[in-house]
Amino acid sequence: MSNIRIGQLCITGNYRQNNEDNLYIDPDNRFFIVADGMGGQSAGEKASQLAVELVPKKLIEMVDFLSDSSDRVHKSINEAVCHANGEIMALGRIDPDMHNMGTTIVLIVSVADQFYIGNVGDSRCYLLRDGKLTLLTKDHSLTQALVEAGTISADEARSHRYKNVLYRYLGSKEGAEGAYTVESTPQPGDRFLLCSDGVTDGLEDSELQKVLGADSEPQELADSIVLAAQKGGSKDNITCVVLQID
Questions:
Q1: What is the maximum alpha-carbon separation in the chain?
Q2: 4-233 has which CATH code?
Q3: What pLDDT does 1 receive?
Q4: How crowded is residue 100: how many other Cβ atoms within 10 Å of its Cβ?
């Protein structure tokens, strides 16, 4: 695998009391995760924390990062996500303070020179290749469902009143359906971005493409993206991980 350089930043932002986002970067660069929690008091924080603790354990248990087949990796991502979903739901049932807690998740798993991308909810993964920004994940939001049904346009979806309403996340029975997964073969010069919706709340894709395309180190890029989203009026916690493929 070519070398991966990483930038990361996770902030509470201007509007929230506490930070319900979490991220996890595997020390051996085998996988990278962003989770955006939801729920009253500290429930969202707990849910996203569980996601970034439970999913890595399962991945390490199940995946041979040197040689697993494509089918096996997709299956392992789904099993890891479903396991975390079950644990989050169970805790939500036992602990009244954690009732109705949930979290999104987006992750990249690196196996045998291939990237496997999975998500549940509306945290996203983008690829910037040759100056062009491509969204690799699919939002599990009501507005995205309306766009796919042809009821509203993508432009209308940006300011729609249901844009933050999710129909699938970890901590919901729909979460047991697993992740949306795709794969991508990383090439030198590629930049991959994992982010919570705090980034996309403050930045249009065209602006994001510009900031991510700057001639900077990955950490500077992560800092710039979060700052631009904050200045752009993001009303959420803001988290991003930038992977530069050398």
A1: 49
A2: 3.60.40.10
A3: 53
A4: 13
